[in-house]
Structures are given as structure tokens and as C-alpha cells.
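Margin note: ligand = protoporphyrin IX containing FE.
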Amino acid sequence: MATETDPTTDEVSIESTRSEREPPGPDGLPVIGNTFALASDVFGFYERLAHEYEGDVAHYRVAGDTGYLLTHPDHVEQVLVTDAPRFVKGEMQQRQIGSAFGEGMLLAENDDWRDQRTTAQPAFYRERIETYAPVAVSHAEAMAADWNDGETIEIHDAMTELTLSVLAWSLFGIDVRGRQSAVRAAATATRDRFDTSRLGAYLPEWIPTPVNRQYKHSLSSLREFIEELIDERRAADELGEDLLSLLVAATDTGGMDDDTLRDNMATFLFAGHETTALALTYTWFLLGHHPDVQERLHAELDEVLGDAPPTAADLPELDYTEQVVKEAMRLYPPVWTTFREPIEDIEIGGYTIPEGTVVSLPQWIIHRDERWYDAPLEFRPERWVDGDDRPEYAYYPFGGGPRHCIGMRFARMEAQLVVATLAREFAVESITDASLDLTASANTLPAEPVKLRLSRR
Ligand code: HEM
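Resulting structure:
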């Protein structure tokens, strides 16, 4: 029988009061809210919000808009999986990065998105993706051939060069190594456009700064270049092995017109090369600070590979290599947060999140939360050995639900093969301090050069 002290009744009444309340958060200044705090140090701002306000839901105000930071894995699962149809990518992301991705699937919504994803998905099946393994290995081997014993290198540039060349080959069948091309020019101009260490990153695109002009020019050259390639593939008697050829064949039967196909090829290039380069950069940086981990990695590579370069068939045996890359993406997730906008008021964690606001699901915070990870700031690949009982969305470097990263398999395979290929030949020592400065650009970028000293093994 229910009494006045019935805990169930109490809980319901607390919940209903709470859901009508605004989640807690800093006041900020009138009009601009928390804009300065957020712009000057996003990671620090998020960390303060997550730690100072209980309940894993906090609000903030940026330039007049209200945002909500959700820091529990259950919230991530609710937004990305269970309640996914009640959210869109939304207006803010469209405004910030829409011009680079055009009509491509990263920002497409509803049926548009579904048709594109269904058409493109078979090109990313395991059997297809594994045909690109030799490309990753041979490009990494060529890079190793240029490295010298005792040399100091900047690894972020090196990995960006490598992942761009692997992707250009896999997507378009072209070799951009050491050459200027529309692909390289667009990659560079996009990086400059979103470089938050430059004032230009905060100016709208229509202001004709040199960086903006270069960005627009290179985007339209890239689009023309891809259109020519599409025409070439359509005219050819036989299709090639690159992803574009597969998609040209797939789109013959509908699902994507040529403009959307073109925008998706650009999307794969932009979404795929810097992220994978960052996963590799942080892996090397961490290895260079942890000789014990590196020793175990070398032992595994020697035992499994012997004198041969790795292949996709070796990957199931390279468990420790996989754990090293996985742990690096936990500590330094290349994508530091995932944004969504609810299309109706929605209750999350006992609070009502209003329609049309922005919710932020920060990999950066949840991946480093001591509720899910012992000693969360330590680099411990072996934490992934045993089955774990942490919530599924305590780790989501590739997002989750229907819109999880379509390139996940490609990226993980490439990263593991590149680590295996290069670590077979070289050991690294980090010169850059362990307290690496970061910038929250479109991705989690190092704010300083990441230097390594190489020694030939
Ligand atoms: C380590 C490397 C990578 C990381 C960390 C990464 C991360 C992510 C994340 C977090 C999302 C979800 C975004 C959201 O829900 O808002 C995403 C989506 C996406 N990624 Fe990746 N990505 C990587 C590599 C790649 C590669 C190699 C490609 C293409 C070849 C790619 C293409 C895409 C596309 C097209 C989407 C949008 C999917 C959709 O909305 O259906 N990514 N990625």
C-alpha cells in the first residue's frame, strides 16, 4: 500500500519537478553568455561544466544560443540510438561546415540521408575495404624508406600526408604523393579555413579573407575534378577498383544523382583523412612516451609478422596493436564531441531539452571519466584485454547508432596496418612534452608540433 513515504511516489514527484527545470550551468555575461570561455579553451570549459554541475546535464550559452552538455553514456545512447529519429544534425553544423560537405551524407537529413547511406554502404563492407589494405601498407613502407635513423620528424604532418595519399588512391585511384593536385589543395585550404589558431576561423565564410577565397576556390576545383573523374568512369568500358568506380556502378541504378555522388566523394575525403591522421599521430605520441608499451608492441609484431610486412589477414592476430590504437583514440578522440539538435522537446536525464537547441555529446569528457576507466588519464592498452562491464557508450570515437561512421572499418584497418608497418622498422621517442597542447578545431588538433626521434630497429 502506498504511504506518504513511499520511495516510488517520492521519486516520481522529484522527477517531474526536475524535468521542468532548466539544467544547471554557468551564468556567463549578458548577451554573449559563455562565448569567450568556450572559444578560448573548449576542453577546459567542458571539463569545468562536467565537474561542477551534477547530474550529467549542464547548459551553456554561446552567442545567444543555448547548448546542453550531456556527459553520461546513457545519454549518448539515448540521443544516437534509442531516440535517434527525434534528432537532426541541425542548423549549427550546417552553418559551420556545410559548404565543405555539400549535399553529402555527413550532414544530410531524413530520407535524403537514408538513400545515400543505403547506396554507399556496400562499398564499405569488410571484403571491399580489405582490398585497400595493400595500399595502406605500401604507402607506409614508402614513407619508412624516406625516414632515417636518429632523425627528428613532425608526426602530424607525416601522418596527414600518408592518410591523404592512401585515401586519394582508395577513393579515386590517383597518386597524390609529392604532387600538387586538386585533392591536396582542397585538403590544405580546408585545414586553414578551420584552423582555430587563426582569427579567420571565427569569421563567416562570405567575408573575402585570403583564407576564405582560397577555400572556396579550392572546393570548386575539387568538385570539378571529381566531376571529370565521374564522367571518365562512366565512359570507361571497365570499372576500376577504387571506391568511386564502385559507387558509379551503384548509382546507375538510382539512390544518388551525380552531384550527390560528387559531394559524397568530397565528404569521404574530408571526413576520412584528418581523423585517421590524428588517430595515428596520438598513437605515435603516446608510444613515444611509453617505452614499455612500445616494447610489447614490437614483440607482438616480431612474433606475428616475422620478416614480412603486415596484411589484412594478420590483423586478427595483432591484438595488442589493436588495443594500442583503441586506447590512443580513447585518450585523444580525433572527434572531440558529437552534436545533435532535437526536433521536439525531449526529456534527458530528468531535464527537458527544448526543440531546436544544440546538444553536445563530448567524447573528450566521457572517454576520460573515472566512473568508467581506472586511472583514466593513463595510457594503458591492456585495459581493453578483458571483457569489461562499462556502458557501451563510454567509448564511441566513431559515434553510434544509424549515423555511426561509415568509414570506421577502413580507418581502423588503415591505422593498425600503418602502425604495424612503421613500428616493424622504427622505434620512436617523443620529444614533445607529455602535456601536449590541443586545439578544438573541427577535430582534436595538436596546438604545437608533435616531434618524434626515430631509431631504426
Ligand atoms: C579515425 C578515423 C575516424 C574517426 C575518429 C571518425 C569519426 C566519425 C564520427 C564520430 C562520426 C559520427 C558523426 C556524428 O554522428 O555526427 C563519423 C561519421 C562519418 N564518417 Fe567518420 N571517422 C573516421 C574516419 C572516416 C573515414 C576513413 C571515412 C571515409 C572514408 C569517414 C566518413 C564518415 C562519414 C561519411 C560519416 C557520416 C555518416 C552518416 O552520417 O551516415 N570517416 N565519423
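DSSP finds 17 helices and twelve strands in the chain.
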